[in-house]
Amino acid sequence: TLFRSGGLSRGGWGGGCSERARHGESEDTGAAAMKPNQVEILDARTKEKLCFLEKVEPNATIGEIKAMFHKIHTHWYPARQSIRLDPKGAMLKDEDILQNLPVGTTATLYFKDLGAQIGWVTVFLTEYAGPLLIYLLFYFRLPFIYGNKHAFTSSPYSVVHLACACHSFHYIKRLLETLFVHRFSHGTMPFRNIFKNCTYYWGFAAWLAYYINHPLYTPPAYGDKQVKLALVLFLFCQMGNFSIHVALRNLRPPGSKTRRIPLPTKNPFTWLFIFVSCPNYTYEVGSWIGFTLMTQCLPVGLFSLVGFIQMTIWAKGKHRSYMKDFRDYPPLRSAIIPFLL
């Protein structure tokens, strides 16, 4: 959450342009009786006409109209396009059908450039590979971090090695889920977001790794009991998080954007769906609480707090979306914390 296209003179827009867009013309008489629509696309900011499409079939989708627009303005590929009914209105979905929209014979749509886009898989792989590698630099105590005196030395405390194993496990899990589990409803995100996201993940990883692996680090106040309890919480929540991701994957067939109400399955970890809309976030927060207790490290606690705030925002947004889209949505559910948030 890089750039807007140069002035509207690019590509000789001047007085606009047109294309005869014949979309799946039918040969039967019933289809012939349907009058095709015309679509004009204006710039949402300047209101200048960018394109005029003739003979667009009424059952054409917004996704198909984007493809027609892309043929004329090739630098604006479909993922960059935001098409809407009003210059400041909500973005139309690719699956929205032209004849179902409140438009006349000539539909006026507004275009906004979303900027350069990047695939979600690429973003996630970059975000998660960084913390994994950065943490290991501190764990192995490279000379430029703690000085030559402590270069490549090993901590005498088992919790430091356990923390490294847990941290590595977490991000390896995320990388594998990105490759083999997650199905994304949106294929891309703004390219500029990768810098913000990487700064967050990579920066926090370096900060907490610096203190956990520092030669002066001291183990938790309550010793092994605290560490073991924290480890159980961490692993339990990691399993829960993975189980929810698999359940969400099974809700959406490959290549589909169909949304269904997520429900508990036979897997006990998914029973949290009874109480919250986004149990994957609940388990994620629980994992980092466990890691905080395990390391008793302030930067880890702050990372957990910031992550909890962000995930609460996401969870509330998804919860509102579920409530809006499904009239029979379970009323007992909260967003992320049962009965509270």
UniProtKB/TrEMBL annotation:
GO MF term set: very-long-chain enoyl-CoA reductase activity
Coiled-coil regions, chain positions: none
Keyword vocabulary terms for this entry: Acetylation, Endoplasmic reticulum, Fatty acid biosynthesis, Fatty acid metabolism, Lipid biosynthesis, Lipid metabolism, Membrane, NADP, Oxidoreductase, Phosphoprotein, Transmembrane, Transmembrane helix
First-listed, main subcellular location of the protein, grouped into a coarse class: endoplasmic reticulum
Region Disordered, annotated ranges: 1-30
Xref: SUPFAM superfamilies: Ubiquitin-like
Biased composition (Gly residues): 8-17
Transmembrane segments annotated in the record for this chain: 118-140, 199-217, 229-248, 269-291, 297-315
Protein's pathway: Lipid metabolism; fatty acid biosynthesis; Sphingolipid metabolism
GO BP annotation list: very long-chain fatty acid biosynthetic process
Cell location: Endoplasmic reticulum membrane
Pfam families tied to this protein: Steroid_dh (PF02544), TECR_N (PF21696)
Domain of life: Eukaryota
Record-listed E.C. numbers: 1.3.1.93
Residue stretches making up the TECR-like N-terminal domain: 38-113
PROSITE patterns from the UniProt entry: S5A_REDUCTASE (PS50244)
Ranges of residues in domain 3-oxo-5-alpha-steroid 4-dehydrogenase C-terminal: 188-341
Membrane topology field: Multi-pass membrane protein
GO cellular component, one term: endoplasmic reticulum membrane
PANTHER family, A to Z: 3-OXO-5-ALPHA-STEROID 4-DEHYDROGENASE, VERY-LONG-CHAIN ENOYL-COA REDUCTASE
Summary of the function given for this chain in its UniProt record: Involved in both the production of very long-chain fatty acids for sphingolipid synthesis and the degradation of the sphingosine moiety in sphingolipids through the sphingosine 1-phosphate metabolic pathway. Catalyzes the last of the four reactions of the long-chain fatty acids elongation cycle. This endoplasmic reticulum-bound enzymatic process, allows the addition of 2 carbons to the chain of long- and very long-chain fatty acids/VLCFAs per cycle.
The family this protein is said to belong to: Belongs to the steroid 5-alpha reductase family.
Protein name as annotated: Very-long-chain enoyl-CoA reductase
Protein source organism: Callorhinchus milii (Ghost shark)
